[in-house]
Known about the structure:
rod-shaped, cell membrane
Amino acid sequence: QSSQDYQFVLALRLATKEINRNTHLLPNITLIFWTLSDKNFDAIVLSDTLISLGKDGEGVPNYTCITKASIIAVLTGPLWSWTDIAFGSFYSILSDDEQFPYLYQMEPKDTYLASAMVSLMAHFSWNWVGLVVSDDEQGVQFLSDFRGQMKENRVCLAFVNMIPLRMQLYMTRAHIYYEQIMTSSANVVVIYGNVNSTLAESYRWWKYLGIRRIWFSTSQWDNVINQRDFNIDSSLGTFTFSHHHGEISGFKNFIQTLKLSDHSEKITLTSLGWIGFNCSVASNNFKTLKDWSSNTSFESLMWHNFNMAMSDESYNIYNAVYAVAHSLHEMLLYHVDMQPVAGEKLKFQHWQVVWLPLYAIPTVMKVRKENVKLHSVTSTSDFPQLPSSVCSVSCSPGSRKSPQKGKATCCFDCTPCPENEISNQTDMDQCVQCPDDQYANVKQNHCIHKSVMYLAYEDPLGMSLTCMALFLTALAVVMLGVFVKHRDTPIVKANNRTLSYILLLSLIFCFLCSLLFIGHPNTITCVLQQTTFGLAFTVAVSTVLAKTLTVVLAFKVTVPGRRLRGLLVSGAPSYIIPICTLIQLILCGVWMGTSPPFIVIDPQSELEHITIVCNKGSVTVFYCVLGYLGSLALGAFTVAFMARNLPDTFNEAKFLTFSMLVFCSVWVTFLPVYHSTKGKAMVAVEVFSILASSAGLLGCIFAPKCFIILLRSDQNSLQNF
């Protein structure tokens, strides 16, 4: 006997009491019941009496009540298969009308039980659970339903124990089941099956051995799981599930007002008082407990563990009694309509008790939390901080799950996301690539928008190059002013001052053209960068070539009237500048006409930046321009090198040779460095090469002359020649 058994009886008493007091249902008929209890089965038997004018045994004068009764219905638990109305768990096999034509199950099918359990597990992030079910049709069906819900909610089974129904077979395997649950890391275990079976004995054994777990089960297991022992506590928490049903408003009041003396069944008051604590002790220990008074009400048990709420089975019993009553009522009306012979006793067959009122069975499951005990409670919510039950610790944002070979999907390793990929949630299967305009942060848990980058004037590197360009431009202007001011001195006249003016002006444009590479690029600046650079440097290098040829011709003219003298006097070397410039202009025209430079937004070159640069357009034409400049520089260097040993009074042959050596060295170095850099660094390399090569020409050719003009004026005179 247990408090749950007594609640079944109380639900039955309430239903029969209400029916017997209802003048519109079974008038002049009293329903009575008695209970049969055995260790092998529990049943509640309903019977009818002969037609009586009284209710609940109340006598009426001048009438005789016939006490002989016939059984018309039997209410049983889940283990009876031959009876009429079963109020225990639903069994699919018992729904076979051919095999069990007179059996009606009041409990609805547990269609959504597995879904409700798995959903709650997912809510608490319990994805590593054990399952213990009875090895029968009911357990196999639940296992199938549970597996179907696991994949959707990413829950995995750590182990499955199929407990056999035969005790002898169970005892041979008990140690295996114990080892499975004991060695498993799963802290959540689901128990499903009949409470009056080896499954319950297995749970009691585990409890005795001190196995502490969070237990999931149905409300039928309340009495087993919540049964307390003063020395043992094996539950970290218990979650029991039941079908959602309406509350019977009069049930609680019925229990509160019912006296123990009113209970006609054989209830040991001492045992009932002990059951109030929901404890399990041997029957011979009851003699040590003080008997409760017969006037004690059930309300006094409320502060113990006697459940005042109606359980699923009690609700089914309550509905079953009403179902039988309505069936009898309809059959009575049928017999009245058929006008039976006066005095003939009404006889009912099993097949006649087939009409049960239709009522809705909601499919929503409700969960009740009981006995949640923790070593430390850090939360004030309805559900405190509960132990975890996972196979692997969750992968934090910034990493992804890597399945462990040969194990369940809930068992995995955590692998950091690859470069520029993120995971912003826990337990992500794959990392996500950041968009082109974003990049992953250090923790790789979210993407950051890239900043736009180019060689700006405000940038330290851009500012340095700008200052350098302006300084060199100013220096070239100063040197040009010195040459103009001292244009009649021997050193200026001896080196063809016109070519010197042209070279200084071209170098000024070379310095200034570098500024086109700095700042936010646009279509115009992209075109001007290359054309200005190509033309300015062509003029400068061709002027150096013209000056070199002039020096060579000047020293080769030794006999008056020779043809070389005519070339020198006519200024033929000066024609080299426009011819060479025209060729470069044609190349630039072809370049701009076929594939001109354009703006490129490059999100790939730099991780944290979007680089805006000018694309050269046609790379072939670009290298043709550079190659043409290189050929001019190489020609100028060759001629100057040949004239390096000529008399050096007012002779700039050596300076021209060294200047072209610097110029060629800069641009030969430029090519590999340029191709090894990206973004604004690549632009900076090009700007620096322009400034360095132009500064080499300015410093090597004009700095010595300015030194003589300004500081050594005594050497700038024909008197000392």
